[in-house]
Structure formats: structure tokens, C-alpha cells
Amino acid sequence: MVRALLMKDLMLLRYRILFGLALSMFALMPMRPSAPRGMFGAMMTHMVVTAFLTQLGGLEERSRGDVLVSLLPLGRGDVVRARYLLLGGLAAAMATFYVVPPAVLSLVAPAPLSPGTLATWWLWCATLTLVLWSMSLPVVFRLGMTGSQILINALMFTPLLLAMTASRLFGPQIQSLVQSGWLATAWTALGALGLALALAYLSSLLSTRLYSRRDL
Amino acid sequence: MEPILSLSGVCKRLGEFALEDVGFSLPRGSIMGFVGPNGAGKTTTLKILLGLVRKDAGEVKVFGLDAESHGPQIRDRIGFVWDENVFYEDFRVREIGTLLRRFYSAWDDGEFRRRLSQFELPADRKVKDLSRGMKAKLALAAALSHGAELIVMDEPTSGLDPIFRAEMLDIVAQVISDERRSVLFSTHITSDLEKIADYVTFIHRGRIVFSQVKDDLLASYVRVKGGVEGLAAARPHLVGVREHEFGFEALSTEREALRRLSGPPLALERASIDDILVYSTKYARAK
């Protein structure tokens, strides 16, 4: 059932995903193999995933898809799990998308990117998206997409604030971490991804609880 | 035989509105008209039996299963035709089949194609380009393609022209011809019920006023017309009365008592479901 719901979401988004990927190519233009811009990629990943999920909510609202989903033979837990899996899948896909082109470019560049740099970048991209959406999805499941628009739009710009705050507060530490080698950075990022996944899991439990109590 | 659905003592409070002690049952192979004014609680009751709204008290059984704890299993065997289109507007008609196939355990692609052809629905047209009547037919085609044993219809004929409505009613009548399926049909258009319903359940202000066999219901009520001078004698026998300048029109269940009254003669006519609903509520006499 969760797979069927995912397929439904992808069917709904099919043209938009292609269009989004095409647009995202422009975001890759300023990148150079030597400067993959981790936080920039993470922000773009988050924003593209936000755009897809907001579009999905809009499409469902326009067609009363929430009514259709509630009338289908689905448990409420299936609906929650499918939406979190879609979030995770989009985050991973978009993170991969932002990593692959610079990696390919780096093959012909004088200073190729190390696998560690790419892995670290990938982890940051997925982590940020998972964390920010994990904060908003319980509200979506409690109030519906319409009631959550403000929060979602506010969260669109949160990475920017996070980046500015982090560079002001922890700039030197991050620099020294990056300089100390890709392995340490990758391990830190992996830890962050682990925490993000744990947060997403807890968030999905909360969403299931809120959604199962809600009258549809 | 066990009814296909039964509700008893169902209560639900939603702000100012409350369903109170709602109960009725629907036997297999029959059509029940579920009627009531706007805001009477029809859609809330339908949502409770589909497990979408949680009741505060009472029992709801569909196919003998508890509606709240077996929601997905029950909805797998229910077809729905909602008052508005609920299918994705950008999908083509055939894609609706592709979408629904993944959700229903007994989905039959061949049956879906047959129904599309029977209802003259163009498979390649987008849902948003279908007329309102065609969208209702699409919902019905989908409901019939997964072997639904119970079809729940919420205002399916509202906004349809008379020809489409007649066609829909014919289809609904065919649907139950195999005695296996049942239809719960919520509507404002009581003339539709007179054509096809076996049972009529009337809900008003969150309470069931009556739930009975349509023919018994129509036989038990009589519409009364008389002059001003006849009203005083008739009044104790009336369920509801509307007085006007020249006399009165009313509803009664006491046909023989009215015939035996002395004084000016009263005209007794067959009551329609509309009469029964209006006089039982808007013009109801305080007992």
C-alpha cells in the first residue's frame, strides 16, 4: 500500500520532477569541481524538495486528493509512511543529483574531488532536508497542507539562516574540521545524517499519532 | 441474513452539532435512500461508517466488521461515488484505472474497460475535461471494477440534468440486480428515491426520524387538504400542518380517523417522500 501511494505521488509529480531537474541544472552552473559548495547544494536540495512537496499538496488540494486517499483501502499509518518515504527518496535523489555533475566534471578537472568530499556533500544535502521537513510534517498531518503553508514557506529560508548562524558561530571550527581531512568531516556528516534519520523517525511517529486521531 | 451494514447508538459531537443515538441497518441486495436537510448529519454518518470520523459512542458494523478497527478491509469492499469529483483532474480516464489497480485487492482491469465502454467514457480524456455527469459515471465504473459489495453514494445526482440522473438511476438499479450488492444513497432529490429505493432513512438535526421500507412508509402517510373550518377537528390527527389563507395542507398517519370525522370533507391524497420530510420537520406539530 505504501508503494502504491508512492507511485501515485510520483505519477502526480512526473512532469514537475522533470521540469524541476531541468531548472536545477542552472543552479549547478556556478559550481566548479574545486568548489562544490556544500551548503549551497544542501539549500538547493531542500528548496527543490520543498517545491515538490508543496506542489504535491497543491495538486491534491485542487483535486480533493485528500478525500480520495481517505476513501481508499489504506490505513492512516500507510499514508504517513508513504509521505515520509517520499521525503526521504526525494532528499536522497536530489542530493545525488547535486553531487553527480560536479563529480563527472571533476574527472576532467586538474584537481579531482575526493570521494570523501562528495560523500560529505551528499550527507549534508540529505541531512538538512530531512531535518527541516521532519519539523514541518507533523503540522501538515495535523492541520492539512493549507494550514501548514506558512510554516513550510518559512522553512524554505531556514537553511539560509542556519548557514549564516553556523558560519558566524562555528566558522573556525568547521574550517579546521574540513582541513583536518575528509574522513573526519564525513564521519561528522554521517553522524548528522544518523541524527536526522532518528529525528525523521520520531517525527513520523508523532505524525502517525496526530493523523490517526484526526477526523477526515 | 446479517445486514451488510448496521449502526446502533452512534453519537458524535462536532462543535455545536451532534449526532445522537443514530441507528439503522441495510439488508443485502437493497438500496437505501439516506435523506435529510443540509447539515442534518448525512455526510458525518457516512464518514463514520467508512471509518473516517471517529464516533464518540455506539457501534458500527460493515460486513460484520467493526468500522473503526477494520477501516482498510472494509473500504476494500466499498465503492464510493462522492458529491464532487475526487479523482485527480490531470489524469486521463484510463490512468485512474492504473492508479486504483494498485490499491484494491479485487481490481479487474477488464471490468473497468467494459464499464468505461458501457458508460461511454473516453479513456484518453483528462478527468478535468469530463462533464459532471461523466465524472459521476467514472466513479461508478471504478466502484464496480473492484467487486464492491456496498456502494456508498453521497449526493451523486445533485447538479446533473434529468437525462443523466435517469441514466445514473438505471445503472444503480442494475447494480443491485444480482442481490449481492447494496447501495446507500444519500440525496436531497427525493423523487430519485421514489424510483429506486427499497428503504428510506431520514435524519434531522443529528437524529434518525425514521428508517423503514419505502412502500410501508408511503402507505402509512396520507396528505390531507381541507378548508379553515375543518382544521380544528382534524388537528389532533395530524403529524404536521401548513395553514394558509384558504385552509390547510397537512400530513397524517391516521387515514381512517380522518375519514370518520364529521364536518366538511377532507381531501386525502397519496403522500410523497418530500411531503413526509417537509411535514415531519418544518411543519411538524408539537406533541
Write the layout of secondary structure elements.
The complex is a heterodimer of chains A (216) and B (287).
Chain A: H1 2-28, H2 38-62, H3 65-71, H4 76-108, H5 115-156, H6 158-179, H7 182-213
Chain B: E1 5-14, E2 17-26, E3 31-35, H1 42-49, E4 57-62, E5 65-66, H2 71-75, E6 78-81, H3 93-101, H4 109-118, H5 132-144, E7 150-154, H6 162-175, E8 182-187, H7 190-196, E9 199-204, E10 207-213, H8 214-220, E11 222-227, H9 231-234, E12 238-244, E13 247-252, H10 255-260, E14 267-270, H11 273-281
Parallel strand pairs in B: 3-8, 3-9, 6-7, 7-8
Antiparallel strand pairs in B: 1-2, 1-4, 4-5, 9-10, 11-13, 11-14, 12-13
Helix pairs in contact in B: 4-5, 5-6
Question: Which keywords apply here?
Answer:
heterodimer, A: 216 residues, mainly alpha, 7 helices, 0% strand, globular, B: 287 residues, alpha/beta, Rossmann fold, 2 domains, 6-stranded mixed sheet, 11 helices
In words, what does this structure look like?
- The complex is a heterodimer of chains A (216) and B (287).
- Chain A has helices at 2-28, 38-62, 65-71, 76-108, 115-156, 158-179, 182-213.
- The longest helix of chain A is centred in the middle third of the chain and has 42 residues, at 115-156.
- The model of chain A has no long low-confidence stretch (mean pLDDT 79).
- Chain A is globular and about 55 Å long.
- The two termini of chain A are 19 Å apart.
- Chain A has 216 residues and is mostly helical.
- By secondary structure, chain B is an alpha/beta fold.
- Chain B is built from 11 helices and 14 strands.
- In chain B, strand 7 (150-154), helix 6 (162-175) and strand 8 form a beta-alpha-beta unit.
- The interface between A and B is medium-sized, with 24 and 31 residues.
